Amino acid sequence: MLQINQTISIPLDEIELSQIRSSGPGGQNVNKVATAVHLRFNVTASSLPENCKRKILDLHDRRITSEGDIIIKAQQFRSLEQNRADALQRLGILIGAALKKNRKRIAGRPTLASRKKRLEAKQQRGQKKSMRKKITSFD
Predict the structure, then answer these.
(1) Measured between alpha carbons, how far is 94 from 14 in angstroms, rounded to an integer?
(2) pLDDT one-digit tens code per residue, 96-136
(3) Where does 2-99 sit in CATH, by number?
(4) Distance CA 54, CA 57 (A)
(5) pTM
(6) How many other CB atoms are there within 10 angstroms of residue 135's CB atom?
(7) Nearest Cα to Cα of residue 11 among 2, 24, 19
């Protein structure tokens, strides 16, 4: 069971994990041992609530395919168990980020000091511009 938050969890039988050979450095171990993990999770066929599925599919993430699959490749570590745990953790983070509610921003009021500072800056700019004017003589 992959726990996302207090109310939402995903059974592990809905997550498809497969072993693949890792790329990059690692000597002979890379050529003969499949330590990387390829995780595939079908959002549309999962047991998640409908509003959660909609929020996840609305994410503009390159790891989510047009069919509604989340694909994560974990090959950071040299052991299969660490890569499997890393892939599951990254899936949990992705789904948790999609389900996080954004607070509505409440506009604050400017402080008295900031209002005074703004008005002083306006006066200084006005004085600077008035100094640029052409001088006319009244003879």
Answers:
(1) 16
(2) 888 888 889 999 999 999 999 999 999 999 999 998 988 87
(3) 3.30.160.20
(4) 5
(5) 0.67
(6) 5
(7) 2
